Amino acid sequence: MRTCNLQVVYPGREYLMEQDEEYFDLVTEEGQQRIRIHEYDRVYEVPGLYEEVVYNKLQCDSPQVITGLLKETIQKHAESGDPLRVLDFGAGNGIVGECLQEALDTESIVGLDIIDEAKKAVKRDRPDIYDDYYVMDLSQPADTDKETLDRWNFNALVTVAALGFGDIPTQSFVNAFNLVENNSWVVFNIKDRFFSDDDDTGYNEMLQRMIGNSLKVYKKHHYCHRLSMAGEPLHYYAIVGRKENDF
Questions:
Q1: pLDDT (0 to 100) of residue 240
Q2: Distances from the Cα of 243 to the Cαs of 96, 121, 164, in angstroms?
Q3: Alpha-carbon distance 157 to 137, whole Å?
Q4: What dihedral do alpha carbons 237, 68, 179, 137 form, nearest 10°?
Q5: pLDDT tens, 136-163?
Q6: Mean pLDDT by 10-residue block, N- to C-terminus, for the chain (247 residues)?
Q7: Per-residue model confidence (pLDDT) at position 81
Q8: Which residues of 112-124 are buried (b: 16+ CB within 10 A; e: fewer)?
Q9: CA–CA separation, 107 and 12 (whole Å)
Q10: Reduced to 3 states, what is the DSSP secondary structure of residue 33?
Q11: Are 4 and 49 in contact (CB under 8 A)?
């Protein structure tokens, strides 16, 4: 993971916060500014800031975990060695795409996110990762957006650290799922709370119905996604499966 010389001040371990409320202070020549981790537009504007906070400080391991599980499952269950045409949904600044490119046999990797700052960060920091990168809202996609994405004939959908906190509505994930071909590989992760009876976002209900009707699951893995600002492990589920039909 890249390193940088940014000056970041973190709250003390005694400050317990909800995951989407966690913050840090960035010190620059202009002064000190407070930024929430989930303010992705602000975080991505600063080169190396996301990597410094989420990966170097908070020890996020999800891109490696997810790509490793996908590679392992393909090796075990794939009938052929066809290269992947991947839709990296909620692609952010390209860290997941970078891991996919390194770990798997890919014919194409296409990134998609809802904010323009993510695309700008990819062009700045990882310009050689994606075959193309789109900024789209898939909650109500235009016909032209669907046509643009359909041309890639995706046979894999990857979504890492993007579900459950209001950044991607459930319908957006369903629409992304329906974009990939039947028999496509589908891999995503989600905080364990959103995949339990305690969920109030609609994700648990949607995923349980999807798994019961449209997605054959090969692997369900519970693991530490990253540390909280207080140093406590944040646990997620990783799901690896294969699409059987549209949802």
A1: 98
A2: 21, 31, 21
A3: 16
A4: 70
A5: 999 999 999 999 999 999 999 999 999 9
A6: 75 85 94 95 97 97 97 91 94 98 97 98 98 96 95 98 91 97 97 94 95 96 97 97 97
A7: 77
A8: bbbeebbbbbbee
A9: 45
A10: strand
A11: yes
The four Cα atoms 51, 57, 59, 60 give a dihedral, to 10 degrees, of -40
Q: Name the 3-class secondary structure at 94.
A: coil
Neighbours of 16 (CB within 10 A): 11
| Three-class DSSP category at 5 | coil
Q: Letter for the amino acid at 60?
A: C
Burial class of residue 140 (count of CB atoms within 10 Å of its CB; 0-12, 13-18, 19+): exposed
Alpha-carbon torsion (78, 171, 94, 128), positive or negative: positive
Question: Which distant-in-sequence residues (6+ apart) come within 8 Å of 44 by Cβ?
Answer: 50, 92, 93, 115, 117, 118, 120, 121
